[in-house]
Amino acid sequence: MSTMNTVGRPTTPNAVGHDYKHPTLTGGRGLLQDEHLIFESDGWGKTGVDLPEPKADGSDLGDLVRRDPIGLPGLSEPEAMRHYVRLSQKNHAIDLAIYPLGSCTMKHNPRLNEKMARLPGFSDIHPLQPQSTVQGALELMDQLAHWLKTLTGMPAVALSPKAGAHGELCGLMAIRAAHRAAGHGLRSDKPRNKVLVPTSAHGTNPATAAFVGYQVVEIAQTEDGRVDIKDLEAKLGDDVAAIMVTNPNTCGLFERDILEISRLTHEAGAYFYCDGANFNAIVGRVRPGDLGVDAMHINLHKTFSTPHGGGGPGAGPVVLSEALAPFAPAPWVVSGEDGFRLEEFAEGEAAQAFGRLCAFHGQMGMYVRALSYMMSHGSDGLRQVAEDAVLNANYIKARLSDLMSAAFPEGPCMHEALFDDEWLKGTDVTTLDFAKAMIDEGFHPMTMYFPLVVHGAMLIEPTETESKQELDRFIEAMRALAQAAKAGDVERFKGAPFHAPLRRLDETRAARQPVLRWTAPEGSNIAAE
Amino acid sequence: MRYLPLTPDDRSAMLAAIGAKSIDDLFVDVPEAARREGFVDLPRVAGELQVERALGAMAGRNVAAGSVPFFCGAGAYKHHVPATVDHVIQRSEFLTSYTPYQPEIAQGTLQYLYEFQTQVANLTGMPVANASLYDGSTAMAEGVLMATRVTRRNKAVISGGVHPHYVAATETVVHAVGVETQVLPAAVDAEADVIAQIGPDTACVVVQTPNVFGTATDVTKIAEAAHAAGALLIVVVTEAVSMGLLKSPGEMGADIVAAEGQSIGNALNFGGPYVGLFACREKLIRQMPGRLTGETVDADGERGFVLTLSTREQHIRRDKATSNICTNSGLCTLAFTIHMSLLGETGLRRLALLNHEAAVKTRDALAAIPGVEVLTPRFFNEFAVRLPKPASEVVERLAEKRILAGVPYGRLAPAAGMDDVLLVAATEITTDADIATLKSALAEVL
């Protein structure tokens, strides 16, 4: 209505200036605000929290009191809201569009989980309250353990690891403890000091194995993207402590010979560590326990939907076989006739526990979210999760394979589709350029250059929470870009992104001259440090 | 199922496009012996209402800190968190994004991490801080490992005032790689005892201030002794708010600070997720664990931020990485940085004084009870008392009266022979009425 606008003029596109492209005068662009650092605000001395005037002055602490300025600006509430909302608008998010980062499982994060985790009975309890006052929390941990054990077909679970890599550490330390108990510790006469890791593994696998003191030996991969059994057999021996295999593997393929792999491993006296990052592909359809797995971490922030939060917090409970269960770290929940009890020390029957991985009991906030997710799906819904995740990935693979080169074209993939850069040969466009052009089209790029075994890898994991419509939109964009690359539209890729909040960033400069914090400009009277 | 968008028609059309007859065709690589027909033995799909009821019932069986007079600390503290914090961290763009691997569309995360690193550096009085670790205890373990890399020595001397869980978490990890530890006996006020233990093989000395008994210590002399012997000083802080009142670890000569940031912006959460703060001297940055955000420019010369120095990290260096950490505490760092931005220096200092004030009042009240001996000489917001009875028994009795009176030290270290010691914390949430209730109830049960 014209009365809505006091000037009363309906807007129509102007003929003049139609092709005029220019940077804006202020750095802002439409809804995208140019936002300074909090340290560049005028908030020195300000506070956005109203607190009573303290009566204490700290004089009883004498010389212990901090006298110099700390260097912390303050913002009023409206300023703080604007600052963070402006920043937020520079982020891609699952809630905005498909986030097909292979091996990261960026699925929808249900808001019911957030609501449950914020119930005061879970969020507002102290880890060291008397156990009689946290029976519901211990019950929740016990329930979560029950679901995880049942879904994996494993007899035990250590809940406390705080992320996937922490879970790997937990699993390998249990393995180390078991070998030591059997007289094959690292400093024994007959040490088992090697861990076999396929070349396609996540970087955390060799990093963790080395961290724990093992020598990392790589296992070759076959042409069809699986563990080379012959190479494995040749390298297995009485000096091998464990193999670390991801299944489905990082090429998005199920290890067909997995039963043979675990048989050979066990025959050699080694343990089978499974990286459970890709459990989403098989949950409800395959139980790792049936594959001969001895230890597997489960990223609750992948398969069980706890939010990634820009890089955490995660949670990495580790399921364990009978052989490794006695070595699980403290603490753990025991249920008895008079309720639940938290065992916090390695003593008595649990004397073989390898120690403690962190203060307190792990990521309770993530446990609540994961259980809320599992209860919502139920056993039927979780099986459907795996099926839809695998269906979505195969659909993408089928619809892009005529234009792009699938790394392993034969047979189905699991929950992620892997392409190499063979199809870009002669275009002068790289995997990186292609990824940056996807940003211009409104999509988050797939995982690039991983796994390392595939040249110019593009690993696409859609997850089950993408609709067919969103998949089609993504596929059409990928096809259009592929056609543009092949048609020689190189500029579109080399300079990309053009439409993101920032253009391509200079990462070399950041590493060469690290600037890791804000410091007051010279001559300013702002006190920082 | 409400989270699954595909319809049966979608599934059929997609299977046709793939050229598969049924979903089973896509699982052919699974060995037959491992294929499971039917559903695993767990409940079936449930609506929001059912899940809310089930979880709500479990939550209802716990005593929430906010519902009773509350005095627990020992590494986890209840503070008031402004409403803005929880609102912002639930924004989709922060909650549902990944580690910022594509900086062009992750400047929101990268900029707040840069601001967080600066806040942590200034708060700890250190030149640089990383983008967080899992929690304070794992930060301490990483600090010890880092010190062994820097000094090429193999032993850590740990004060008896360090939180026993922190010591256990550290020993578990560092012993695995052959690093030796020497932990001094538990003592309320003896941080300086580490000095006599420093030798030519000492990589680092680890002290905590305020320590697990609440004692605040000027560690300057310990730093000097460590440095004179070529060792590093690691200062552990489990209550981040304390740095708003007490001299910073940097000012006292720390080389590495490993701290728990839960106190600022984050709820108690029964122990996690929390946020490990990690800061160090500038010359040590290439040995630092965890993610780092750095400033740079884009193709147009605009300032921007990226993850940097990743040649230290597992995804590049694999078995030669400085640490295996990947996912850290992203959203908890956001909560920390928002709360800190709201407080500012003015608010933080005030908050710290209010904490100290509440703890002094609580101490004075308990000291007046016959049989109660206050052990901690100088403290921030927590202190230890000796009771005439086992502390765990007293805490149970008071819990029956709906008072959470503190943490028995014996729960953290059963073998220390200090079962009669109770750790009592007070913060800005502690009211005069809470203190009076605790005082009369404690007097009654003793």
From TrEMBL, chain A:
Gene Ontology cellular component list: cytosol; glycine cleavage complex
One term of GO molecular function: glycine binding
Superkingdom, natural source: Bacteria
Domain Aminotransferase class V: 189-309
Top EC class of this enzyme: oxidoreductase
Stretches assigned to the Glycine dehydrogenase C-terminal domain: 387-486
Cell inner membrane in keyword set: no
Alphabetical keyword list: Oxidoreductase, Pyridoxal phosphate
Protein name: glycine dehydrogenase (aminomethyl-transferring)
Species annotation: Brevundimonas viscosa
GO BP, one annotated term: glycine decarboxylation via glycine cleavage system
Reaction(s) catalysed (UniProt annotation): N(6)-[(R)-lipoyl]-L-lysyl-[glycine-cleavage complex H protein] + glycine + H(+) = N(6)-[(R)-S(8)-aminomethyldihydrolipoyl]-L-lysyl-[glycine-cleavage complex H protein] + CO2
A UniProt-annotated Pfam family: GcvP2_C
Biological role stated in the UniProt entry: The glycine cleavage system catalyzes the degradation of glycine. The P protein binds the alpha-amino group of glycine through its pyridoxal phosphate cofactor; CO(2) is released and the remaining methylamine moiety is then transferred to the lipoamide cofactor of the H protein.
Comp. bias intervals (Polar residues): 1-14
SUPFAM superfamilies: PLP-dependent transferases (SSF53383)
Region ranges (Disordered): 1-20
EC number: 1.4.4.2
InterPro entries per UniProt: Aminotrans_V_dom (IPR000192), GDC-P_C (IPR049316), GDC_P (IPR020581), PyrdxlP-dep_Trfase (IPR015424), PyrdxlP-dep_Trfase_major (IPR015421), PyrdxlP-dep_Trfase_small (IPR015422)
TrEMBL record, chain B:
Gene Ontology biological process terms, A to Z: glycine decarboxylation via glycine cleavage system; nucleoside metabolic process
Record carries keyword Oxidoreductase: yes
Residue ranges of domain Glycine cleavage system P-protein N-terminal in the record: 1-439
Keywords: Oxidoreductase
Positions in coiled-coil regions: none
SUPFAM superfamilies linked to this entry: PLP-dependent transferases (SSF53383)
Enzyme class per UniProt: oxidoreductase
Entry keyword annotation includes Heme: no
Record-linked Pfam families: GDC-P
InterPro entries registered for this protein in UniProt: GcvPA, GDC-P_N, PyrdxlP-dep_Trfase, PyrdxlP-dep_Trfase_major, PyrdxlP-dep_Trfase_small
Catalytic activity: N(6)-[(R)-lipoyl]-L-lysyl-[glycine-cleavage complex H protein] + glycine + H(+) = N(6)-[(R)-S(8)-aminomethyldihydrolipoyl]-L-lysyl-[glycine-cleavage complex H protein] + CO2
Membrane-crossing residue ranges in chain numbering: none
GO MF annotation list: glycine dehydrogenase (decarboxylating) activity
Protein family according to the UniProt entry: Belongs to the GcvP family. N-terminal subunit subfamily.
HAMAP family named in the record: GcvPA
NCBIfam families (alphabetical): PRK00451.1 (NF001696)
Quaternary data: The glycine cleavage system is composed of four proteins: P, T, L and H. In this organism, the P 'protein' is a heterodimer of two subunits.
Protein name in UniProt: Probable glycine dehydrogenase (decarboxylating) subunit 1
Gene: gcvPA
